[in-house]
Amino acid sequence: MSETDDRGSKSRRLAPPTISRLSEYLIILEELAEGGRDVVSSRGLAVLYGNNASQVRQDLCCLGHTGRVGQGYRVRELERMIRTTLGIDSQKKMVLVGCGRLGSTLAMHVPMADYGMELVGAFDVMPQVVGSRLGPVRVQHARNIQEFCLRNQVELAVLTVPKTAAQEVSDALVAGGVRGILNYTRVRLRVPPTVVVKNRQIICSFLQLFHDAVSRPDPE
Amino acid sequence: MSETDDRGSKSRRLAPPTISRLSEYLIILEELAEGGRDVVSSRGLAVLYGNNASQVRQDLCCLGHTGRVGQGYRVRELERMIRTTLGIDSQKKMVLVGCGRLGSTLAMHVPMADYGMELVGAFDVMPQVVGSRLGPVRVQHARNIQEFCLRNQVELAVLTVPKTAAQEVSDALVAGGVRGILNYTRVRLRVPPTVVVKNRQIICSFLQLFHDAVSRPDPE
Fold first, then answer.
1. Do both B160 and B108 map to the same domain?
2. What DSSP string describes B138-156?
3. Residues B103 and B65 in one domain
4. Is pLDDT at A11 greater than 60 in this prediction?
5. Are residues A29 and A96 in the same domain?
6. Based on the domain organization, do A190 and A129 belong to the same domain?
7. The pTM is what?
8. pLDDT digits (tens, 9 = 90+) for B97-137
9. Does B199 lie in the same domain as B144?
10. Is residue A220 in a domain?
């Protein structure tokens, strides 16, 4: 299993596919707990996720959880262990840059605060947006990014600006000490090796669905 | 390399990680072409994507493109080949169910039409939304889903409804002949094996960033 992140740098952490599955297991476990379920088997979790029980057991071993043979996993306990492994039992500061339609939807729709991420700042350049409220914060002018991030020890950022502004904003975030950028623009950002960029073009999810669903062979 | 999709069914197509990389290469190539670049090397593409040249060459071999030694790839040609491989040189019909903040943002923000997906219908149950325009379509009541999808031979759907409605809507889509659902809800949908579901909880992208950026060891 690869131990490299999106940018190919070495790290001592779990591989991105494992992290991706663990984060989805977490959402599933939360739904189970909310529905009153106390215990889930590796097979039960695999059916809900869409993989197999041995993959689930292997992933949960990464947490140091070996399960109890024949008894399944306690839902709440597993939830806590995944949260600890992902690191989201501590709160980190995040900013949003680009408060247009996509940015404001992410700020309103994604429950960051429940998952260790506190939205402490939002930035834009449009006069009609700067000064307005967005969820818990007031939108500031983008010229304040670097100073704000430094002063508030911001570690994470979400980037939803027009592509012409992406690199410049990224530079300001990096100068402000930000260590991770969730990049929703089409631009491949140039950042120093100490900064993690996760590229998320939403159209790519659509393309994957398209390919898998439409070019799917008919059942025999 | 696994040939299974998200739900573990057998298929004769490219593996999801390959599809995922190809769709990102496509976006990169489009940006290069727009910037006036005619040719790109496997190494150049790898730097932009964040992997390595041998992975890029292997992926592009899937297209039947072996490149020309020492000459790099023609950007526009590669773009066309990826489009053909993904199947998006033909247009398929798509509906959106759930026209709240997230749904309407996806409809407005994601350039589906440029990638083989024609938004032909949108559905909701809220009286203040039903009847309003959303991009190219007018929002209909969700009770029309099955009949509309059957009549218009809709193949793809995007699901952005509250979780309590997710399974019921999914059943209507499946009864309407839809073959692929991009599911932005937290619910793991029960669908027949002929239907592909891609689960996309946006929070999971945030969790992956969080883990990789925050638990990243400091540079030595």
1. yes
2. EEEEGGGHHHHHHHHT--E
3. no
4. no
5. no
6. yes
7. 0.88
8. 999 999 999 999 999 999 999 999 999 999 999 999 999 99
9. yes
10. no
The domain total for chain B is: 2
* CB pair distance less than 8 Å for B198 and A186: no
What are the chain B neighbours of A180 within 8 Å (beta carbons)? 209-210, 212-214, 216
Collect all residues of chain B within an 8 Å Cβ-Cβ radius of residue A208.
16, 19-20, 23, 198
Q: What is the ipTM of this complex?
A: 0.87
Residue count (chain A): 220
Distance in angstroms (rounded) separating the CA atoms of residues A41 and B137:
44
A8 in a structural domain = no
Are B175 and B144 within 8 A, CB to CB? no
Q: Tokens 């060891």 appear where? A: B217
Does residue A56 surpass a pLDDT of 90? yes
pLDDT, tens digit (0-9, with 9 covering 90-100), for B150-176? 999 999 999 999 999 999 999 999 999
Q: How far is residue B140's CA from residue B134's CA, in Å, rounded to a whole number?
A: 10
C-alpha A137/C-alpha A93 separation (Å) is 12
**Are A208 and B14 in contact (CB < 8 Å)?**
no
Residues B50 and B72 in one domain: yes
A186 within a domain of the structure (yes/no)? yes
CA distance A202 to A185: 9
Q: How far is CA B115 from the centre of its chain?
A: 9
Per-residue confidence band for B40, with pLDDT thresholds at 50, 70 and 90: very high
Q: Give me the helix-helix angle, B202-214 and A16-34, nearest 10°.
A: 130
Residue A190 lies inside a defined structural domain of this protein: yes
Of all residues in chain A, the one with the smallest CA distance to B206 is: A182
Reply yes or no on whether the pLDDT at A6 is more than 90: no
Structural domain span for residue B31: 16-85
